[in-house]
Every structure is written in structure tokens, then in C-alpha cells.
């Protein structure tokens, strides 16, 4: 039996009952286990195994990338004498949990930072130069940051700047600074 085009259209728009879809849609199928349980399972994997798990499916990639605990297993170092701006392309393609930048002049961040910032729990800036406004812009895109290590020769008493500026430190619980030009912000573990 074949229908003409006009009849097919009428059949498609008819009020006849359509077969019932499985009540478990794609999203429900993929989340048979809660994310926290997957996270507990994945935390026993090595970094190489985690990379392989990320490649299995989009759900696992998002789960690993969205978990600061799992991302802490990945770290990266970017060293250079170059300029970081909106057009900068990092050598490390995978978002990491810990990142150290050394020797850069940072004048702004592009779309690449939006992929790195949310997953970072530790950021170290060694002998980088940037304005405080750029630093605050970077920190606003790192909501899970627990440890910030600044080592600048040109900036003094940077912890005071954070306090005076009223910068929302989010998960960063404690400000520490020692020698001039060095400032550490770390999570307050003693609670």
C-alpha cells in the first residue's frame, strides 16, 4: 500500500494515537547512576585511564571535566615569554585541574580560558605581568579555585588588594602572603 504525498501529510498530522515512546528518554538512560557515584568510581582510575574514560562518551567526558576532584589528577605548565590575549591558543588541549603559567604578559583571555577556568582548583602565576583588572577577570572565571599562587616582582601586598577590592573569593578560604611580591590564597583546611 502506498500513499500519495498529500495523504502522507494528512496521516502524519492525524490525531490517531502514536506509539508510546519509552518513558526513559536519552538523558534518563545515561544517568542511571548519579554523577556522585560515577565520580567515586572514577576517582580510582589513573590519569591515563581517566583520559580513556573521557573518550568513551559525552556523558563521561562531561562528568570528568565537570568534577574538580577528578580534574585535579591533570596538571599543566605553560611557560613562555609571549603575550596571552584573546587570540592565544594554549599548547595543552585538555582542560586541567591545576595550571601554572610562567613568564607571560597577560593582557586578556579569550574563549580558551572559559574552557580552563571552571575546572581549575589551583592556579600558579610565576613572573607573569598583568593588570589587577585582568587578574580579577581571570579569577571571576575560576569559580572552583581553591589555591592561587602569585609570584610577581612588580606587585606588592596583593592580598591587601583582594581584601580592599572586596573581590568575591568563592571557595578560597584563606589569604596568605609572605615575602614582598609573593601572595598565596589557599583553602582554609582547618575550617
Automatic annotation (TrEMBL):
SUPFAM superfamilies (UniProt xref): F-box domain
Residue ranges occupied by any F-box domain in the UniProt entry: 27-73
SMART domains given in the database record: FBOX
Superkingdom of source: Eukaryota
Signal peptide location: none
PROSITE patterns: FBOX
A Pfam family this chain is assigned to: F-box
Basic and acidic residues compositional bias, start-end: 1-11
Record-linked InterPro entries: F-box-like_dom_sf, F-box_dom, LRR_dom_sf
Disordered: annotated segments: 1-30
Name assigned to this protein: (northern house mosquito) hypothetical protein
Naturally occurring in which organism (per UniProt): Culex pipiens (House mosquito)
Amino acid at each position: 500500500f502506498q500513499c500519495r504525498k498529500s495523504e502522507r501529510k494528512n496521516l502524519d498530522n492525524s490525531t490517531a494515537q502514536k506509539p508510546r515512546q519509552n518513558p526513559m528518554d536519552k538523558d534518563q538512560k545515561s544517568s542511571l547512576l548519579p554523577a556522585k557515584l560515577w565520580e567515586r568510581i572514577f576517582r580510582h582510575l589513573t590519569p591515563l585511564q581517566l583520559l580513556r574514560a573521557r573518550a568513551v562518551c559525552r556523558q563521561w567526558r562531561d562528568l570528568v571535566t565537570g568534577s574538580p576532584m577528578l580534574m585535579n589528577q591533570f596538571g599543566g605548565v605553560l611557560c613562555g615569554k609571549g603575550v596571552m590575549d584573546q587570540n592565544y591558543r594554549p599548547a595543552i588541549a585538555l582542560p586541567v585541574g591545576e595550571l601554572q603559567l610562567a613568564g607571560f604578559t597577560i593582557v586578556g583571555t579569550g574563549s580558551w580560558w572559559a574552557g580552563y577556568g571552571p575546572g581549575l582548583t589551583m592556579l600558579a602565576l610565576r613572573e607573569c605581568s598583568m593588570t589587577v583588572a585582568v587578574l580579577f577577570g581571570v579569577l571571576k572565571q575560576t569559580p572552583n579555585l581553591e589555591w592561587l599562587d602569585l609570584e610577581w616582582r612588580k606587585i606588592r601586598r596583593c592580598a591587601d588588594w583582594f581584601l580592599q577590592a572586596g573581590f568575591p573569593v568563592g571557595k578560597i578560604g584563606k589569604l596568605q602572603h609572605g615575602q614582598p611580591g609573593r601572595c598565596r590564597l589557599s583553602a582554609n583546611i582547618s575550617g
